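Hallway conversation turned thread

IA: we were arguing at lunch whether anyone had actually written out Probable F-box protein At4g22030 end to end. Turns out nobody had. So, for the record, here is the sequence (425 residues) and right after it the structure tokens. Reply here if something looks off.
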Amino acid sequence: MAALQGSHLLSSSSFSNERRICAGLHVPSRPRAKGISLPKLPASIKMEQLGLKEHNSDDLSNSKPHQPMTADHKDDHLVAKLSAIAEAAAERAEMHTIIGEQRNNWNHLFLHSINSINLTASLMAGISAAVTVGEAAPHVLAFKLSSVALFTAATGMMLLVNKIQPSQLAEEQRNAARLCKQLERSIHSTLALGAPAESDIAEAMAKVLALDKAYPLPLLPGMLEKFPETVEPTCWWPKTRKREQETKKAYVNGMAGNGWSKELEEEMMGILRVLKMKDEEEYVRVGKLVLNINKTLAIAGPLFAGLAAVGAGLIGSPVDSPLPVLFGVVGGALAAVVNTLEHGGQVGMMFELCRNLSGFYRKLQEEIGSNLRESEVEKRENGELFRMKMALQLGRSLSELKGFASYASPSSNDEDVKEFAGKLF
């Protein structure tokens, strides 16, 4: 009996082990998900919450939430605006360069064409006079009509060219292209230094508009007056408002802060006086002289060509006089000479150059004056940086600027000012 029980237990244990082995072989083990947790759902949801969610979903579908502009987003917006202004300045510089080259070509083409026409017409007038004396007098009409037509065309072309002054137009575009590139570089410098402000954008826009007004792109209408009644310096910068009130500045050990000192103010006041008395006045005076020369040449050229046309038409007339031949031949030659002096010598360009240089010194005066009128030195441009900029723009060293402090004294006479402030131009 005991033996039977032992065998039964053995057989049952072996069967159970076999089941365990089979279960371990055939049943795959489930992978364990690590680091995943499911949210707990609420057991019940109230009906008020369902109604509220349905109402909010309808509102969201009809309107977008308003997000306030952050500081970073505002800075990016200002950077984008200033970059757009820099791109516009670069585009204007390219346009001025292209138009300047075109108008410079106009000057050369009109110069050579008008001279060729005048000299050819003079030659025909001389031939017609020689044919009139000879045996082939009936053929003189062709030479007369040809010379008259050429002189008339030359007169009209000279009037047109003298009105627009291509050399002066080319100088305007060259200077405008240089200033637009300078503005573009200053804007990129502002962007490189840090986040721009609204005042930087307003100032850049004002500078672009001032350049457009000083150097217009279109020829007609909008062209600058080529023969003005009064010579004024060119203004290509926005005007700054003058401060009416000034307060006395207190200096501690000769220093006022922000790089400014009493000695530096005296230097700037001396430079300001010399710029106004000598540099600007000199270029305005030379500009008036060049303008008068240009007016004389602009009148004399068409006048000589017109007289030559009349003289060529009177060749062979019953009036027995050498004046028609003299007017026809000599007048055409003089017209070519005057045209060469005016447009070959680029007198209009010289006048525009004097006007731009006087404007350059006027701009330096306004920069110095705006800083000196500012009573709070912290609102001025840094004194040391401003002094270095003035020295570079005037073509002088920093030590040479100290000599202008003596001109700031009210006791100094105007006759004592012998030198010019600028050595660069």
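OS: looked through it. Residues 1-69, 243-248 have pLDDT under 50 and may be disordered.
IA: good, adding that to the notes. The radius of gyration is 43 Å.
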